[in-house]
Amino acid sequence: MSQLPSVLTILVTGASAGIGRITCQRLASGKHRFVLAARSADKLTELASELERAGCEVLAVPTDVSDSHALTKLVEASIQRFGRIDVLINNAGIECFADFDTLTFEEIQATVATNLTGAILLTRLVVPVMKQQRFGRIINMASTAGKHGPAFGAVYGATKAGLIAFTQSLRGELGPCGIGATAICPGFARDGGIYDDIVRATGRRTPPLLGGTTASKVARAVEKAIRSNPPEMILNFPALRPVFLLRDLLPRVGEKIILAATRKFLKRAAASRNAGK
């Protein structure tokens, strides 16, 4: 694996709020160059100003990751400004917790396009740049929902599982080219956007057995992933990896434990979403 440059050019999608914003703020101490992408131009401008005050060079590009033409323009603008892309953080995502048979085709397609297809297409555009550099890091923001598909989150879980498999394939193919890839799998992240929206809608936090993490811990994990290129990082307290291992050994027992911890909370999230339609 090629040596990590001291100053990185980092492209972050979903940069305007939550995990994306907090990750940029944490990485700013390295005086890196940032390409910020999100749909909210105003929030991007605000974050760009903050990072510039911290001594970073910043390019803000309002982008809808579900639009392939917008992704092409994003990469072209990045190369025109900085000449390289060292780190791609595929962070943009939307939630889709609902009774599956209440989802419209448009909602399903939007979730897949934003959470999975957009990340794949953007990575496809960035990999040739990284190959030419002989260096790159691809960080895919997956979820514990991708490790075991959640009740009332079938489409969301499918997109996150897809990101995990995508990351595994990239590692096998691109490692010899100096390009690493990591899937980061947070539980419900406080101050991270989606979880906070569910809490506001339901008035309930996750049960103790399910737990969660924070956006700040996710940001620290991204920083570590850039340095050390691990295959996967599961972020949750209490730890969920032993539960996933149990599920693999004893599928029915593991499934019952996971459903006992998650189903009631996620059913409330689905009900609040349906009520808000």
Question: Descriptors for this entry?
Answer:
9 helices, two-stranded parallel sheet, 9 strands, 277 residues, alpha/beta, Rossmann fold, globular
Question: How would you explain this protein's 3D organization?
Answer:
With 277 residues, the chain is α/β, with parallel strands linked by helices. It has a single domain (9-276), classed as NAD(P)-binding Rossmann-like Domain (Rossmann fold, 3-Layer(aba) Sandwich). It is 53% helix and 16% strand. The protein is built from nine helices and nine strands. It has helices at 18-27, 41-53, 68-82, 105-133, 154-174, 194-202, 215-228, 241-249, 251-276; strands spanning 9-13, 33-38, 57-62, 87-90, 136-141, 179-186, 189-190, 213-214, 232-235. The chain has a seven-stranded parallel sheet, with helices on both faces. Strands 7-8 form a two-stranded parallel ribbon. Helix 1 (18-27) crosses helix 7 (215-228) and helix 6 (194-202) crosses helix 9 (251-276). It is globular.
Short synopsis of the structure:
The protein is α/β, with parallel strands linked by helices and 277 residues long.
